[in-house]
Amino acid sequence: EPEVTQTPSHQVTQMGQEVILRCVPISNHLYFYWYRQILGQKVEFLVSFYNNEISEKSEIFDDQFSVERPDGSNFTLKIRSTKLEDSAMYFCASSATGGRGYTFGSGTRLTVV
Amino acid sequence: GEDVEQSLFLSVREGDSSVINCTYTDSSSTYLYWYKQEPGAGLQLLTYIFSNMDMKQDQRLTVLLNKKDKHLSLRIADTQTGDSAIYFCAESTSGNTGKLIFGQGTTLQVKP
Question: Which residue numbers of B have CB closer than 8 Å to A's CBs?
């Protein structure tokens, strides 16, 4: 069964450093998403991406965040200058059509120290 | 605004049925989902229901949707210890982006 692949599974970074979280969505999917889950809390929407541009973003997704689909297969989330409160599990997801057939990756646990 | 609420904890005995409840606010939701998350793991899609359906059954899982009350439930028949996990309800909002709004998750504890 097709999977969404995320790397790395766990990343530790110093506060103020830039991090790039990587995702390989399912190949024929057109919609791509990033979500995050702070420990013990809800899964929160960050951003959706369609047709090579951001289609919606939440208020969490400020200027420190950016997304890119650099080569037609990878989908990345960059955090420019990490803060302690960015520590969370970050999930990538893709879907064939918006709102249906969602598949989540297994997540990247980001720890900012 | 959009919001999804769930009770936080449910404890059942192995072999019993579990019912996890969820309420949502967006009446224009198109799809409603149930995800399972085991400790340290990702989000596993269990089932989903289209908003024009009342019920969907998939093996041990039964989803009931009451659109009038904006209430969704997941029933797990013959609950097993392997069903112990956090269960998230989520709604797909109106519009084309397909963003999901999640509830805070219900921890299901299955006692032997």
Answer: 30-31, 33, 35, 41-45, 48, 88, 90, 92-93, 95-105
**What is the b/e burial string over B27-45, where b = at least 16 CB atoms within 10 angstroms of the residue's CB?**
eebbbbbbbbbeeeebbee
Q: Average model confidence (pLDDT) for chain A?
A: 92
**Cβ proximity of A36 and A105 under 8 Å:** no
Q: A31 vs B35: CB contact, 8 Å cut-off?
A: no
Dist CA B91 CA B24 (whole Å) = 8
Q: Please indicate whether residue A107 or residue A96 has the higher confidence score (pLDDT).
A: A107
Question: Do residue B103 and residue A35 have CB atoms under 8 angstroms apart?
Answer: no
Query: Tokens 């969370």 map to which residue?
Result: A88
What is the C-alpha to C-alpha distance for residues B44 and A103, in angstroms, rounded to an integer?
Answer: 8
Query: pLDDT of B61-95, one tens digit each?
Result: 999 999 999 999 999 999 999 999 999 999 987 65
Average confidence score pLDDT of chain B: 91
Nearest CA to CA, how far is A18 from chain B (Å)? 24
In the block, residue with structure tokens 């019912």:
B19
A104 and B42 within 8 Å at the Cβ level: the answer is yes
- Measured between alpha carbons, how far apart are the two ends of chain B, in Å? 41
Helices (H), chain B: none
Tally Cβ neighbours within 10 Å of residue A24: 16
Closest approach of A91 to chain B, Cα-based (Å):
8
> Using the 8-state DSSP alphabet, how is residue A17 labeled?
-
